[in-house]
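step=predict obj=YhcG N-terminal domain-containing protein n=126
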Amino acid sequence: METVVADVIAIIRKAAEKAINAVNTSMVEAYWLTGKRIAEEELQGQERAEYGKAIIKKLSDALTAKYGNCYSQTALYGFRKFYATYPEEKILYTVCTKLSWSHNRLIMRVENPKQEILSPRSIRSG
């Protein structure tokens, strides 16, 4: 009986890990797409800097009301930076989604984030 219990525990643990990884991949993709949408909207504005601030503020207010503090202005600026750092969709799907959002944020702080994220060390530690 102990073997059955151990096997089932391992099955459940593996399923939970897969679920966490799937959620992480989806959220990293959502943050990149959000950053892309913000960047696209900003390009349509007349006075870019002020318009960008207004977009971020309004979007943050709406998302915070619906989903909580996860969508602060700081977070939205981070999503926009994430998209600006990796505008090529192929990088998003081949590398960025293999890393957690926390790892992606750390990598964006280095001098050359695109080079860092494409390094084998980053991909292995994902």
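step=describe
The first helix runs from residue 2 to 43.
step=end
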